Amino acid sequence: MTRLGVLVSGRGSNLGAILAACGGGGVDGEVVAVLANRECPALEIARQHGVSLIRVFGLAEHGDAAARDRAMAAALQRAGVDLVLCAGYDRILSDDFVRRFDGRILNVHPSLLPAYGGTMTAIADALAGGGAETGVTIHYVEPDTVDAGTIVAQAAVPIVPGDTVESLAERVHATEHRLFPEAIQAWIEGRLPQPAGMAPVPRERAGKPEDGE
Ligand code: GRF
Fold it and tell me: Judging by DSSP bridges, how do beta strands 151-158 and 83-86 pair with one another?
């Protein structure tokens, strides 16, 4: 069973969809860790599902983002996590973190990247942009990039007359909740491409802390 670690910062609807998908809904994985950068409703969802490792990695506790990320990566590796999922995680992961899980981090973004990347207001921006559609992208998180890693899945969501940010967001989120679990299962089955420029990583590297941790 593939061991999943989920990073969250907010509402946790994608976490809920992933947990449901792992409970017989098409993902052959188990959420073994839910880590957050602050207290947030997603943690309550994790508690309700009995996830074994649930932890907040606050910046104040760790001093700076790089130290926080080192501690998070070590916790994920101790938990034997194979695949890291950014499900509404609102911080940029340090390159050190990303390199430790190279090819093993997926993010969900609420737009058709590269459109409306690098912003927390992608849905509102797409609505204001006046186009006929927006959508959802699942991509690898890669070093030195923000919302620009190798894309592994996309789905369009039409923008219809009379849409508000709320009505559009509802359809975008429903699409996320279908597409993200599908992409996770595709990763588990080895059906996703490797990120561009990445050396193949031996599977047994996962879950092993670096020396000294
Ligand atoms: C989602 O729209 C996701 O695409 C973006 O942040 C939002 C998180 O929502 N990165 P939730 O916390 O999963 O409900």
Answer: unpaired
- Give the pLDDT confidence of 84-121 residue by residue, as tens digits: 999 999 999 999 999 999 999 999 999 999 999 999 99
Residue 14 CA, closest ligand 1 atom number: 13
Query: For residue 54, what are the β-bridge partners?
Result: 34
pTM, full prediction: 0.92
Q: What's 197's DSSP letter?
A: T
> φ, ψ for residue 144 (rounded to 5)?
65, 25
Cis peptide upstream of residue 209 (ω within 30 degrees of 0): no
What's the gap in Å between 121 CA and the centre of ligand 1? 11
CA 13 to mean position of chain CA atoms = 12
Quick check: CB of 91 below 6 Å from ligand 1? Answer: no
Q: Cα(186)–Cα(29) distance, rounded to whole angstroms?
A: 11
Q: What is the dihedral angle through the alpha carbons of 104, 57, 119, 105, rounded to the nearest 10 degrees?
A: 0
pLDDT, tens only, 35-82: 999 999 999 999 999 999 999 999 989 999 999 999 999 999 999 999
Calculate the dihedral angle through the C-alpha atoms of 33, 38, 42, 45, rounding to the nearest 10 degrees.
60
Task: Give the angle subtended at the CA of 90 by the CAs of 9 and 182, to the nearest 5°.
Answer: 80
